[in-house]
Amino acid sequence: MIRLSQMILVATALALSLTTAEAQDTTSILRKTQIEKGVSHRSKYGFQMVSGFTRRGEMSQRFEIRHGDCGRSSGWDDCNTDRARIERKERPKNAFSKPGQGIWYGYSMYIPSDFVSLGRGNTSLSQAKVEGDLMPLWQMTFNDRPYLLYSDGQSCSLGSLSRWRGQWNDITIYAHYGEGGQQVYFQLFRNGALICERKTPLMHRSLWGKRHKIGMKYGIYNSFVSRYLAANATKPVNLSSYTQNQSSGTTSKSPAQSPFKIDWGVELPTHVIFYDEMLAGSRREDVDVRMREAASLPPVD
Questions:
Q1: Tell me: the pLDDT tens digits for 91-106?
Q2: Cis before 259? omega within 30
């Protein structure tokens, strides 16, 4: 099987109007990400570069996931852990998300107006993880009540889902992956407004004093999907609940471990998400979509 994680999709070169120093300090995320196929699926519709619908420029990234779109990789099985996904991931890890350092991510995301929440299930649209640790350091989740979740279980409300659907949302994130000594470790801006901030380390204490590989991911990642299926089932189903222990010390439970082997009489709604202008850098002004637009810098991807 050909792994999508072996396929690199190269983005347009950085704007020539940037100075040499600025260009060296800013990375197109497209250049450092690959499709995570091992735990995804092999459909052609899963990921596409498309034209005609963008935040800026000529091309955007379109992700689509349907009922049953799950897969396996070495050491992990989405199909047998109540999950499904199609994501791009930072490769190699630490390409721009470096332990002990701060990084700015900037991009635009479009959630269609007909996006259906999975209720008590989760749809993650961006996250950063330490290799080998189950819980993301931070994760943006969109369900009935969208929220940002940290690895220690703390969270931040992202407002109502209706505020996010049917428009391009310009997202700027600052994340510092150090163990101490900083005033701010995380900030999330939506359309220029600060909506989440954290002043304690993202790296929880069980990770301190170790060498880490950190990777940012984006796309569509659905977890504990059997919660939605059980709540909307039209057929009687014999269930054996699934329990998963999180690194934060909490426990997550759902109705079924392998939901796609069960005939619920209903399927998961199809999700389509668009991303554009993916950048990472050491300065906000180099990656923030609105700041770049105001400075008349050309599109990136």
A1: 999 999 999 999 999 9
A2: no
